[in-house]
Amino acid sequence: MLQSMIRSARTFIPDERGEFSVKGLAITVGSIVVIGAVVVWLSGGQMTNWIEDVWDALGGWLDTTIGLGW
What is the pTM of this model? Predict the structure, then answer.
């Protein structure tokens, strides 16, 4: 059982080819950090403020354009 697992691992490992460069890893880690920072920033209340600002602007535009009386 163990020998067959080792044999299958030995045949599997050389078949796996991919790019393992410092530059590729740095870009991947940088992307993850930027996405994490954006998620933290949006979950910290900025998203709700942004939605309220857009909603108020839309309401103001509708009030001046159509005269809905918001």
Answer: 0.43
